Amino acid sequence: MSGIINIKERIAKRAAEEIKPGSIVNLGIGIPTLVSKFIKSDDIFLHTENGLLGVRDLTKNDEIDPLIVNAGKLPIGETIGASYFDSAESFSMIRGGHIDAAILGALQVDETGCIANWAIPGQNIIGVGGAMDLMAGAKKIIITTLHTDKENRSKLVKKCTYPITSIRKIDVLITELAVFEFKDGKCYLTELMPETELDEVVKKTEGSFEVSHTMNR
């Protein structure tokens, strides 16, 4: 289990590098919640759609307040000057284009940049939450996920077989193996994660991608 946690934290740490100072950023459920551990700038403001701007990671010395939770019902901390508001105002921020980046999880990402992250046919899972709104309203979409599922099937697929979340395409996909960028309906491998070889990425990826000429090896 600790190995999986370390892999997920590696993904989250890399995702934090995508965030520019001055940004308002929404963190989704799962790996995205770990990103708050790696935010070093005081000029990045984390948002949760249940009504808080100014989320921070809890420390060992913090007392947990059961009323201060994120959208996944996990306890969170609040920064000095944090703002509270109701869900209607929170979603107005999202739909009004005031979220600079959303970091979300995914069940599948297709080679054009469409994602499926809210439903598996025949299974009862948490549902869509604010993902559709964030896909439509956030200025930049960053997906963080393990490269393969529990049955070792690629999550980067030719075409999503699960219900898609939005017709909007994502900007960046980060897995434990690689970083991909999506432009004009195409997928580009831009970076290999540490201790990863290109052959491994090719072997574990169903969807097509091009290797960027600027790829960081």
UniProtKB/TrEMBL annotation:
GO terms for molecular function: succinyl-CoA:3-oxo-acid CoA-transferase activity. Transmembrane segments: none annotated. InterPro entries: 3-oxoacid_CoA-transf_B, CoA_trans_fam_I, NagB/RpiA_transferase-like. Its EC number is 2.8.3.5. It comes from the Bacteria. It holds the Pfam family CoA_trans. Belongs to the 3-oxoacid CoA-transferase subunit B family. It comes from Fictibacillus barbaricus. It is an enzyme of class 2 (transferase). Keywords: Transferase. This is 3-oxoacid CoA-transferase. Gene3D superfamilies: Glutaconate Coenzyme A-transferase.
